[in-house]
């Protein structure tokens, strides 16, 4: 049950982070000039804003790392509980 809440929260976060990128992707690009145009005559509007894209990429990467570390932490706790339970059972069985 907790896993479903975690997946649902992850999907909501992904949609919230992906919405601005989707709106940028839907904008119509300006009409390209025909023929050769020197670089110094290209309007600045054709440049992509790098800072928001790089920040979004790093944010997604860190989010993925944090989710991975959190999942390992939860699984490790479950394994430690199982090992402690097995140790208690072995110890209780050895006393009889």
Quick gist of this model?
By secondary structure, the chain is mainly alpha-helical.
Distinctive features:
single chain; 96 residues; mainly alpha; 2 helices
Tally the beta strands. Answer: 0
Assign a percent range to the helix content.
Answer: over 70%
Q: Which structural class matches the secondary elements?
A: mainly alpha
Main beta sheet, described? none
| Average pLDDT reading | 81
Strand content: under 5%
Number of helices: 2
Order of helices and strands: HH
Q: What's the gyration radius in Å?
A: 26 Å
- List the quaternary state of the chains: single chain
Parts with pLDDT < 50 across at least 5 consecutive residues: none
How would the blueprint of this fold be written?
Blueprint: H1 2-25, H2 50-95
